[in-house]
């Protein structure tokens, strides 16, 4: 079987797994979530000495395996991005955002943003896995798009604004956006629209939540600093 066909089958299986997890949510077996993480393959983006966690996945027996010749090639960066885009699109458009945001915080963010997660105590400080320098920008753009789209939804934004830790996490993720290549200027501009709307309240889509009102001075300092960085880097 050609590698292209192997990828199509893998993607179809991944879709079934997403729907399965979407239904069971917290009642699911952690090993099934490990299998899902195994499918979210970031290995094509590893550089230098970066290490990625491995997940214990049960071997498929000969009586369970599809009666087709397996592909031999590794998945390319483009194929990995297709799987990731499929995942983030599923999260954005589905009705179980609270579950998937929790999954992202506990499982995905510690790999893509280990330093940020350590600062929020979402990851053990001794853990040396993940992209410690920065999240690969091709992946980061997808994460950024998922968060920004969710902030535009009243229901999903309630999840993102649930706690200070949730807000700090996506603000720390936003901060990495200033390392994006200029080709992604539109993504950065859309991100900065959220800061502007919080500060001057000129955009009804992004409402200043009550939890941020309680720490107004802190959030104003963070948002104002990032808006200033925008002018430094892109004006």
Break the fold down into its secondary structure elements and pairings:
Elements: H1 3-24, H2 30-39, H3 77-93, H4 97-112, H5 114-119, H6 137-151, H7 154-160, H8 164-175, H9 185-200, H10 210-214, H11 216-234
Helix pairs in contact: 1-2, 1-3, 3-6, 6-9, 9-11
Descriptive key words:
mainly alpha, 11 helices, single chain, 0% strand, 235 residues
Description:
With 235 residues, the chain is mostly helical. The protein has one domain. The chain is built from eleven helices and no strands. It has helices spanning 3-24, 30-39, 77-93, 97-112, 114-119, 137-151, 154-160, 164-175, 185-200, 210-214, 216-234. The longest helix is centred in the first third of the chain and has 22 residues, at 3-24. It is globular, with a radius of gyration of 19 Å. It starts with a helix and ends with a helix. The mean pLDDT is 79.
């Amino acid at each position: 079987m050609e590698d292209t066909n192997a990828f199509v089958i893998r993607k179809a299986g991944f879709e079934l797994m997403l729907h399965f997890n979407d239904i069971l949510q917290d009642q699911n077996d952690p090993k099934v979530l490990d299998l899902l993480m195994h499918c979210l393959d970031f290995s094509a983006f590893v550089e230098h000495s970066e290490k990625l966690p491995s997940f214990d996945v049960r071997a498929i027996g000969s009586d369970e395996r599809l009666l087709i010749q397996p592909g031999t090639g590794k998945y390319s960066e483009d194929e990995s991005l297709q799987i990731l885009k499929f995942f983030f699109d599923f999260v954005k458009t589905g009705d179980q955002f609270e579950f998937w945001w929790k999954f992202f915080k506990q499982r995905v963010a510690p790999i893509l943003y280990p330093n940020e997660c350590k600062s929020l105590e979402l990851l053990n400080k001794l853990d040396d896995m993940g992209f410690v320098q920065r999240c690969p920008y091709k992946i980061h753009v997808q994460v950024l798009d998922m968060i920004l789209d969710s902030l535009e939804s009243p229901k999903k934004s309630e999840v993102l604004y649930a706690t200070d830790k949730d807000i700090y996490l996506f603000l720390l993720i936003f901060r990495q956006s200033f390392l994006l290549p200029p080709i992604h200027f539109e993504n950065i501009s859309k991100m900065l629209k959220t800061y502007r709307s919080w500060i001057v309240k000129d955009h009804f889509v992004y409402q200043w939540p009550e939890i941020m009102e309680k720490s107004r001075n802190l959030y104003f300092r963070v948002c104002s600093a990032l808006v200033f960085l925008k002018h430094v880097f892109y004006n």
